[in-house]
Design goal:
The protein contains 25 helices and ten strands. The protein has 611 residues and is mostly helical. A four-stranded mixed beta sheet has the order 3-8-10-9, with helices on both faces. The protein folds into two domains: 398 residues, no CATH class; 111 residues, no CATH class.
């Protein structure tokens, strides 16, 4: 194989390796069926309801995610779309970490694979998978790529960076599949791009946030305070033998104690965390000396760990409660452990640098002796050791996080009731509450699939049962309707609330109250062992979003989609116009110099025969 062929091979190996790891993690989920686990709900088809556009009473937490699924599921089965996005997110997180290590540290192939392993094989990914935050992982995956692009923008002259800017816009839009992912991406971009590029970066980031910003403004949910009970309920949690700070430093500590791998519920949590931190600390000094972007990533990691830990203290909880009751939109910050994702790029870099340090030590002291060349270390043995320790630190991430992540098959009645409920009015759902435990969905509670399955808006109160308490939701209408049903109100009262349908979901616990008195006054439309659908007779006083609001929200979503697709297509076009150069996985921006001006590191020989 000639030199050019070896270069291409080196660029492809981290991508292939990351894809293999992603398949090992998500394997069971990739069979037929749908993701339905805690907060994750995928359905065969979803629709552009007011809620999907973020125009309901609830805060637009799943915007533009739900609108994207509504559009794509009209062409491709929605379950396949969600699985494809999730697989791509886990894969690209690893590949991006490898690319970042290669570009900032100039490491050879072995350390790149270590960086990819850190990005994929860690408690943060495991816990967010178990919690059902598949779309948040899209924002997580964008972080190393954004860091890489920011480094290029800092190093390149102002002219000739159109391809890099286009790629950055695409990454910001991809991360913006959810508001939290958008905040993660915007935060890391602002910290890294430098003063010269800051105004344009902030402008492009704001444009990618338009779907949920516009939805918040139109629905008025941004001005409403959040329930302060959500601050202690969603605070970072201490895992066994670690404390809150140790749990966060190990990239764990999610608030939900049931959404963690089994290995993180025992003394092994301490062992796994120590293994990860030892590998990270080994390369910390090298990363801090590798340029301004790398140093800033390290400090960002420190902040991403320390601030959520402080937020779980008594005074931190008080500050959080003050913010959510007085600052509009501060409720986005209540799940503080989400922001530990910002530590991942630095962790990946440190582990990669540590692998190189270990390889040099092994070359000098074990393989080649004192005369070993420092620029050609034997990193193969160190790579195998580092990857093995990372896998051992979290053994049950494999194969669907110990089998917890598996596809679900909906009863046929769901598609029938979705087709039948096509008249005016919202859909009220029984039993009360937002979470279900169906016989076909497993033992973990799942969000009610009705809002994403039905053609009309299915009302949800937004109330969340957390740690033995309840965090209030934003939807006053849904709360009123639920109370009417549970006390057996008349059909006329439901109609006045804009309810045109009532769906009863069988086989799941939850309050029914005196709803049988109300159901007796309604017109049965469909019934089987799992589902019963009723039509509310009479004139329905619907309270749908105005056509103007839907057009404005649709325009914001169209802008986001244009930035997403257009950004990546433009970047690809520029990449084809100029062949990738050595030292860059994506290809350098036009006119970009060889390295960051304040970098003082030496590149490993990427043709190292000892790997």
């Amino acid at each position: 194989m000639n030199a050019e062929g070896r270069k291409r091979w080196y660029r492809l190996v981290p991508a292939a390796y990351s894809l293999a790891l992603a398949l090992i993690v998500l394997g069971p989920l990739l069979g037929s069926g749908y993701l339905l686990l805690r907060d994750a709900v995928s359905t065969p088809r979803s629709y552009l309801t007011d809620s999907a556009l973020g125009l309901g009473e609830a805060a637009p937490r799943a915007v533009p995610q739900d609108a994207l699924l509504a559009v794509l599921s009209s062409v491709v089965d929605g379950g396949i779309v969600v699985k494809a996005i999730l697989l791509a997110a886990v894969w690209l997180a690893g590949w991006g970490a490898a690319a970042l290590a290669r570009e900032l540290l100039r490491v050879s192939l072995g350390p790149q694979l270590v960086a990819a392993t850190v990005a994929i094989w860690n408690p943060y990914v495991a816990e967010r998978l178990l919690q059902g935050h598949w779309s948040l992982l899209a924002g997580y995956a964008a972080l190393p790529w954004i860091a890489l692009l920011a480094a290029r923008l800092r190093a390149a002259p102002p002219a000739g960076t159109a391809g890099t800017w286009a790629a950055l816009i695409g990454c910001l839009a991809a991360a913006g599949l959810t508001p939290t992912g958008s905040l993660l991406a915007g935060g890391i971009a602002v910290v890294l791009v430098g003063k010269r590029n800051l105004p344009a970066t902030v402008t492009f980031w704001i444009l990618t946030t338009m779907p949920w910003v516009i939805a918040t403004a139109l629905s008025g949910t941004g001005a409403a305070p959040s329930d302060p009970a959500g601050i202690p309920a969603f605070a970072a949690r201490a895992e066994p033998w670690l404390g809150t700070l140790g749990s966060l430093a190990g990239l764990g500590g999610i608030w939900n104690s049931t959404a963690v791998p089994d290995s993180r519920t025992t003394f092994f949590a301490l062992i796994g965390t120590l293994l990860l931190l030892v590998l990270v600390v080994t390369g910390l000094r090298a990363v801090r000396g590798s340029g301004r972007v790398a140093r800033r990533l390290v400090w960002l990691a420190v902040a991403a760990i320390v601030l959520p830990a402080l937020g779980a203290t008594g005074w931190g909880l008080s500050v959080g409660e003050f913010l959510v009751t007085r600052v509009p939109g501060a409720g986005l910050l209540r799940d503080t452990q989400k922001y530990v994702a910002l530590a991942m790029p630095a962790y990946a870099l440190c582990a990669a640098a540590g692998c190189r340090v270990a390889g040099r030590w092994l070359s000098a002291n074990v393989f080649d002796g004192p005369g070993a060349r420092p620029d050609r270390p034997r990193t193969g043995g160190a790579t195998v050791l580092f990857i093995a320790l990372l896998l051992i630190a979290l053994p049950d991430l494999a194969w669907g996080v110990g089998g917890a992540l598996r596809p679900v098959h909906y009863p046929a009645g769901w598609q029938r009731v979705a087709a039948a409920a096509d008249g005016p009015g919202d859909i009220a759902v029984l039993p009360g509450g937002m979470f279900r435990k169906f016989g076909y969905s497993g033992s973990a509670p799942v969000l009610d699939p009705a809002p994403r399955m039905m053609r009309r808006d299915a009302l949800q109160t937004g109330e969340l049962p957390v740690r033995g308490g309840v965090v209030a939701g934003e939807s006053k209408q849904a709360r009123r309707v639920e109370r009417l049903l549970l006390r057996g109100a008349s059909a006329h009262e439901l109609a006045l609330q804009g309810v045109g349908w009532v769906l009863v979901e069988g086989g799941t616990p939850g309050p029914l109250g005196d709803s049988k008195n109300t159901l007796a006054q309604l017109d049965p439309v469909y019934s089987d062992a799992d589902l019963q659908l009723y039509r509310v007779p009479g004139t329905i006083t619907a309270d749908d979003a105005s056509p103007a609001d839907r057009r404005l929200s649709g325009a914001a979503h169209l802008l986001w989609a244009t930035l997403l697709v257009g950004g990546f297509l433009t970047a690809a076009a520029y990449s084809r116009r100029k062949a990738p150069e050595e030292g860059s996985v994506l290809g350098k921006s036009e006119g970009e110099p060889e390295a960051d001006h304040d970098d003082a590191h030496q590149r490993d020989d990427e043709n190292d025969p000892h790997i």
